[in-house]
Write a structure and sequence with these properties.
11 strands; seven-stranded parallel beta sheet; Rossmann fold; single chain; 2 domains; two-stranded parallel sheet; alpha/beta
Length: 353
């Protein structure tokens, strides 16, 4: 019989890529989201994880072999991030029927484990790069730590195995996602081409000049499934990036060339996208109407605040993958190729012209 998976956050960048990989591998896939998933062969489970009773009711008949937690909700403060997102993990794991067979639960967090929460992002005493899984938690409150603790507590109670996965900025397709650099840059390049504005790098000189890495959603999905099927990966945390490194001073020209715009010379001045794109909602609606695009709402495509946070960092960010490599995970994805694949998909799906 096919194995059964529950993908939590199935409509997001990571969740949709994970669900697709599982379907392709022959799993029976339930996709939980607040709005029903329309992904082919994914069985929709509609639930709000902030509602404990409603979540338990929605999950009453599902006994999955593997659970993939790929969602979170951004709040106005880190204290609220902790309260809400820890409760969501707790409500999910409390609401699932107790395992009747071996079960694995994979939690996706990210590099804020090493960089700190948004309120203290990239500040204070940070671990050395490249970031390694054995580096201790920072001495600040962080909703990723609270999510992990909920996972560990439930695993001790219910006897399932777990893994934690820490991607860098994720490249992939999803509409309405809170953190979506790839689509944000695609929209920004389209607006620059439309208006003749300079395609100017919005971030810091450190990010422009330093080595960095990223994570393609399909690469992350492959590691998630690998962790389910690899006994040595159980009850461990793993970094996950594409496997290459680059400098934005090179990548910016790659993206510019794909969209047929001229990359502006970088002068070291921060030009946040949140300010650059603040008045572009009407222009995007006009472009969408003229080009027959499927999403005229700029806010559902672009998340400039998140792209600014990543590209504005004053520190180098490079991630070590030795731990999962040593255990047999050999996935690789070139980052410029990941961007190009995404841009082509956005164009094919009529999300950009």
């Amino acid at each position: 019989m096919a194995r059964t998976a529950l993908v939590v956050g199935a409509s997001g960048i990571i969740g949709s890529a994970t669900a697709q990989l599982l379907v392709d591998q022959g799993w029976r896939v339930h996709g939980l989201a607040r709005r029903p998933s329309t992904q082919d062969k994914v069985l929709p489970v509609v639930a709000d994880l902030q509602d404990a009773a409603g979540t338990a009711a929605a999950l009453a008949s599902i006994d999955p072999d593997a659970v993939f937690i790929t969602t979170w909700l951004r709040q106005s403060s880190e204290a609220e991030n902790i309260r809400v997102n820890a409760a969501m993990v707790r409500n999910l794991l409390d609401g699932l029927p107790r395992p009747t067979a071996p079960r694995h639960v994979a939690l996706v967090t990210g590099l804020k484990h090493y960089l700190g929460p948004f309120e203290a992002y990239g500040k204070g005493s940070l671990p050395q790069t490249p970031f390694r899984e054995e580096q201790p938690r920072l001495g600040v409150e962080n909703f990723y730590y609270a999510q992990e603790d909920e996972l560990f507590n439930a695993a001790a109670r219910d006897g399932f195995t777990w893994s934690v996965h820490r991607p860098h900025t994720v490249i992939g397709k999803a509409v309405g996602n809170a953190m979506n650099m790839g689509t944000t840059l695609a929209v920004y390049a389209t607006l620059c081409r439309e208006t003749g504005r300079p395609f100017a790098f919005p971030g810091s000189a450190t990010q422009w000049n330093s080595l960095t890495d990223m994570t393609e959603a399909r690469q992350l999905a492959r590691q998630l499934l690998w962790a389910v099927d690899t006994e040595a990966a159980h009850n461990e945390a793993f970094n996950v990036v594409n496997g290459d490194v680059f400098r934005w001073k090179w990548m910016w020209g790659q993206i510019a060339d794909w969209f047929g715009v001229q990359a502006a010379e970088f002068d070291g001045v921060l030009r946040p996208l949140e300010a650059q794109m603040a008045d572009d909602a009407g222009l995007w609606r006009d472009i969408a109407a003229r080009e027959g695009l499927t999403e005229p709402d700029l806010k559902r495509l672009a998340s400039p605040w998140h792209t600014d946070a990543d590209l504005g960092r004053p520190i180098e960010v490079v991630t070590d993958m030795s731990k999962s490599r040593s255990l047999g995970f050999n996935g690789y994805q070139s980052t410029n190729g990941a961007f190009f694949d995404l841009f082509a998909q956005l164009r094919a799906d009529r999300l950009i012209p």
